[in-house]
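We give the entry.
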Amino acid sequence: MALASTYSATVEGVTAHSVTVEANVGPGLPGMHIVGLGDKAVGESRDRIRTAVANSGLPWPRTKIMVSLSPANLPKAGSQFDLPIALAVLASMDPVIERRLKGCLVVGELGLSGQLRRVDGILQIILDALHSVPLRTIEHIVIPAGNAQEAALVGHPSVRIAQSLTEAWQWLAGERELPGLEKVDHVVRSVPVADFRDVVGQEQERRAFEIAAAGAHHILMIGAPGSGKSMLAERLPSILPELSSQQVVEATAIHSISGESSGEVIGQAPFVAPHPSLSKAALIGGGSGIPRPGAVSHAHHGVLFLDEVSEIPADTLDGLRVPLEKGEVRLTRARREVVYPANFQLVMAANPCRCGVDVPEKCTCRPMERVNYLRNVSGPLRDRVDISLRTSSVGAVVGRADNEPSEAIAQRVLAARDRAKHRWEKAGVRAATNSRVAGATLRRHFPADDAGMAVIEGALANGDITQRGVDRILRLSWTIADLAGAERPSLEHVFDALELRASKERGVLV
């Protein structure tokens, strides 16, 4: 009998777990058996591996082959085990290569020709290999060439790039070298496709989006079809700050896990706009087997735009409450919990009623139909939205030409965020943006000036705003003050914040 082993990995949520791949070749009827709680893709790998080895001109043992993927109680999904299984089987017949393979972590899907194909979750796999205690002895990480661009974000001298099974085998045999990677330290932000330069007029809407970007506040827009709701939402990423290196890795990793990435790097704030007919699983995440990330996770460090929000079921929308509050999604399947990050900025848009006419005299809907049109947006969800905005009708913007580009707005947004970050760090507050600061902290240590607080307290006493509304007003006031370069929110800033939430506090969506 001959035994060989190597390491591989499986991804569960945003965590990669190391997997030991063992291949034993011994007497018995020819055939390969794989054990270790693998999914259908792992089971199908037997035929892919045999064909790929044959087409690569490598010898395949004509005897019984037993492959074990351990730990046995860990579910394993994906086709990344093709290459490590093939190499372990082949190495079992060569003691020299078997010893070298022990110090490697290998991932890669095999094509029938022996060429390697990219796999999902490569960033998590490499990070786990570099930081996991059981894998500290790994000398090399072998990945497909199709994953090279993603892997460069966490490039490491131990990473080796292989194009095919033949290349990997020849490298193990010492017959050739495999190229390595160079870490990408800076990601250049690509030019946004959508720019606020294209938005004509609509000063109120542009100002509201600037405030939203500066403080990471969520927005609800109500307006007639064609009033620019989608146009405004699509341009929000163009005024958000550039992603940090860590945020680029996190955003790219989510798309890699979901299998929606073709190897490209997510270099700027993602913009995710799912169809209103999406299910709760598509929005939050889920599915059979290991749950997959949903739209809220795909929008991590970016914007989630829900158009025609009135068409989305209430149960689906209520699934947003926890991600908005916690910045993550926890999905439980078969006694295992998977956690996905979901720190996004929410933008919702809807028509004023079913007929979509913004002029009451021309609306064909009955009064109660207009009142109940957005009942699917629950009170707790509405309360998490800081800014309510009615978009201007087409007639109100024709002839105006305020074509300030996104670049100019983004500079003000960045300056405001820097002011906020410096303030919260100096005060020991764990918050990256104003929208994340606890209400109690604002009320006790960071109130508006006396005149501003008097207005807020008066509105609370009159029942115009709720106690939670006070916190929202203070957060908005601080963002407006940061944009103005003020040291503290003044009466003017408080009035502006009240205007952005006034309709909400009266119980009316704009």
Residues 105 and 341 are 26 Å apart (CA to CA). The domain at 195-395 is CATH 3.40.50.300 (Rossmann fold).
